Amino acid sequence: MTLALEQTAQDLLFRDAHTAYAFSDEPVSDEQIQAVYDLVKLAPTAFNQSPLRITLVRSPEARARLVEHMAEGNKPKTSTAPVTAVLSVDLEFHERLPELLPHAPGLKDKYFAEADRRETSGTFNATLQAGYFILGVRAAGLAAGPMSGFDKDGVDKEFFGDGKQKSLLVVNIGRPGEEAYKPRSPRLAYEDAVTIV
Predict the structure, then answer these.
(1) CB contact at 8 A, 83 and 54
(2) CA-CA distance, 21 to 125, in Å (whole number)?
(3) For 89, how many CA atoms within 13 A lie in the half-sphere containing its CB?
(4) What is the layout of strands, in order, in the sheet containing 143-147?
(5) Spatial CA neighbour of 84 closest among 74, 94, 97
């Protein structure tokens, strides 16, 4: 059986896509990022809760604030990427549920009144959306360099001081530069990863 998606699109999104470690100085426009968002916002989340929030770091001042909280090995590439996205979960996503799920007006209070439940569900669904976001960046013909190596508490305090958002992932975005990619590491074979019961 073959996939419905044509071969070039499969390659763009998966086979030829790698985590980028270096970027050219070609800028990434707000319009490109909006096109990415307008595509990935359509992908599913539970109850359409859409808890992912994206903070674009562009200015030298904001970049310096972010780089301070990156792991040592992630500082150089974050310093030079055309734009960096801090992907976070909105811990008050439930306040938007009446507009995002209008046919279930009581859902906000029925399921998400408790902060712990909101954080668990929101974090899971925002993480799912982060994966969509990376694919959206690739669909735009850009390279993504996702990183979990950073001080989350430091980033949260620096960029989300009100405690209503928690960072999940930092993604450098741009056109790949010279020696942008490392060789692809092995992947598990189908029979090692899939169990049929």
Answers:
(1) no
(2) 27
(3) 19
(4) 52-57, 83-90, 165-174, 143-147
(5) 74
DSSP state of 155: H
Calculate Rg over the CA atoms of the chain: 18
pLDDT tens digits for the chain (197 residues)?
Answer: 689 999 999 999 999 999 999 999 999 999 999 999 999 999 999 999 999 999 999 999 999 999 999 999 999 999 999 999 999 999 999 999 999 999 998 889 999 999 999 999 999 999 999 999 999 999 999 999 999 999 999 999 999 998 999 999 999 999 999 999 999 999 999 999 999 99
Q: Which two tokens stand for residue 70?
A: 């990156």
Q: What are 165's strand-pairing partners?
A: 90
CA atoms within 13 A on the CB side of 51: 29
CA 50, CA 125: separation in Å to the nearest integer?
7
Dihedral class, residue 73 (left if φ above 0, else alpha if ψ from -120 to 50, else beta) = alpha
Q: Which residue has the tokens 């998400």?
A: 112
| HEC secondary structure over 32-85 | HHHHHHHHHCCCCCHHHCCCEEEEEECCHHHHHHHHCCECHHHHHHHHHCCEEE
